[in-house]
Amino acid sequence: MNRIVSAFPAFTAIGVGRSIPFASVVRSDIAAFQRTLADAMTRGCRLVSLFAMPEPNAPAEMPLTAVAILADDFGSLLYAGRTSIADSYPSMAADFPQVQLFERELAEQCGIIVTGHPWLKPVRFAPRLYSGPDHPSTAPSVCGDMEFYQVKGAEVHEVAVGPVHAGVIEPGHFRFQCHGENIFHLEISLGYQHRGVERAMIGASPARAFSFAQTLCGDTTIGHTTAYCQIIEALSDCRKSARAQSLRGIALELERLANHVGDLGAISGDVGFLPTASFCGRLRGEFLNMTAMLCGNRFGRDMLRPGGVQFDLDRQLTDQLQHRLEKSAAEARQAIELMWNSPSTMARLDDTGRLDPLDAAQLGVVGPMARACNLPRDARHDHPTGIFRFVHIPPATWATGDVFARAFVRWLEIRRSTEFIAGQLAGLPEGDTCSALSALAPDHLAVTLVEGWRGEICHVACTDSAGRLFRYKVVDPSFHNWPAVGMALRGQEISDFPLCNKSFNLSYCGHDL
Amino acid sequence: MFASLITKILDVVILLMMPPLLPGIINRVKAWFAGRKGPPLLQTYFDLRRLIGKQSVISSATTWVFPAGPFIVLGMVVTAGLLMPLGPAQAPIHFEGDLILLVYLLGAARFFTALAAMDTGSSFEGMGAAREIAFAVIAEPALFMVLLVLVTAGWQSSGVSAVHSAAGGLSGYLSLSTLLLPSAHAVVSGRMQAALILSAVALFIILLAECGRIPVDDPNTHLELTMRHEVMILDNSGRLLAAQTYASSMKLLILSALLVHLLLPRNAGLTDLSVGAWILCLLGMVLTVGIVGIVESFMARLRLKLIPMLLASAFLLGGFAFLLLIG
Questions:
Q1: What is the pTM of this model?
Q2: ipTM, interface predicted TM-score of the complex
Q3: Which among A146, A147, A144, A149 has a CA at the least distance from the CA of A172?
């Protein structure tokens, strides 16, 4: 494989969806490692993953190694670097808010002593993945049992919501500091859905690992499975056929369509505008059924497999899909335009839950939430893999950063994804659906980014000398975006929280893993 | 005498039996506009029967105020209903000044709902109570403004001279049963009709607010943080919830009956006891809640901070109607 010259001496450049020998990842001391991180983030790179693991093939008493993956969106390159953490890890969160959750995770997962973190607390209340020098403030405790930021004063009141909610949604705890109807501060405590996926992935057989990858986050089955398949393909140097890549693209965009349409309906329902809510609820089902036409499952389970896809489209099914897509897209257009044409709905969405673009950039927000703040981050465009190397979907952006922007970006993406699917169905390339895989390359590191409907999904894998998964790190877009919900709610009315939350529609299980 | 007794019994039966039908109508209208089949028209009756058969779960953090609240509310609202003439006949209870009692019975019911909500100690219910009371501060004067228009109209149409009225004031015109009977209006001017229509619009806004309908409150939401009325009764179950559900549908009946009376054609040859007048009144109520359903089908909820402005506009509409009358 041809080497790419790295812009950062302490980091190694790596293509998205590619693998490199782990030994070739530059190893530096903590100071140089952090200096490079700071330098890269100042120059506009994003931290897409940061995790720790024991050094592969090293004696047990060796200190843990931290691996960081940076994304340069403009250069379409990823950079990997590593350092070993002997005693403590000085926090960079005060200067670079996007690292704060990663550092808290390091402390919780591996018992690494993170020093100088402004708000070091548990992330998921999960048991340790690796034992490290323990830090009492981050010792795993009962889920949700933690200190919340408090505003003192006679007129300030605290509202605690969840983890049990009135609707059928996932569990999460929200703590508001309010003055009357106004929110001063919102803190979100998750972890109730923690299943220990990363632990289960270590050394898992390919069949088990595949089924874990499919269930990382139920509504993003295709997104996460695509990322997993790309990792396995990168590690086994497999070339997929054009047809398989095209079918994967169709499945990914169908998932986006179903979820975006469902979200717009839900946003409309939250403001009490029934027409769009009712229509979109049904239309979401139509798009899910199209995925079911592809593979027999509405959420795309078992649609993909490492090496390609498990289901092919014949001529008749393609025609049927084209017909149904056209019909449902036209109906979705009518239903959603009802919402834009309803002044009472627009008054509700406009200027509600505004996320400042600067905050969004600093927090490392990804996906439609970032694009609604005029940050054109889209892994399909910046770090294309598979079909998106050949067919480009322009990122849809809007500048206002409010609930309306988040809704409108979804609508723009619905239209572009529809066009993309129609184009793919019209000219589906010929070829096999699945290529053979060889064994995983030993002692390699593979990284990939996939733009799921919620945003950028990052999977990183390391193999040991026997070619088994030694560490598998998953970063769901929700992990980047949850802190932004709290920021967007500052100074808002508490009665608008459900609407704002719905406009983000982040995953709990994707965050908790 | 016999006929009037029958009317009285009929009045009480309709008053007690009809309220749960109204939310059913609203839900059917909404379902129709959304292209759904919707729940049965009589769903609220089924719900009430089910709830009455259920045990109440009462939080150990509450005092006697919490379980007592819904029944006090029920008593207040039903009494208020007895003051309201539904059809063209006099209300079962009527006396000079009953319209003021009606408003304050509804006010006291609101007070006890809020008190019972706050008794749970839940932050949601505290917020709901705060919202309810804050909006009531504006909704109540608006309701009085509408009643003032009604009283003035009744006083003017009775043909009493200004000299006489200066001595007697408005006394004699402060009973709903006297004011609302079709035969009570001997002289009706176009200006008076306009004022009554204007105040009916104001009353419709008040009705949406008082009964917790869109655009003021969303009765279907499951989101605790945005609710107003529903959040206050979040901890009620079994009979307590049945009492609250029935009371809120009774409130809907009272206000829609008042609205119908404001718009009832004057001097249209309706006598106090005619069957036609009864049908007209009941149909009017059904139509009113139907319009509530249509509003809910086409409008989003207002931002919470804008609701006081909506209620203030109801007050202003009532004020304009009053100016129109006396000007």
A1: 0.89
A2: 0.85
A3: A144
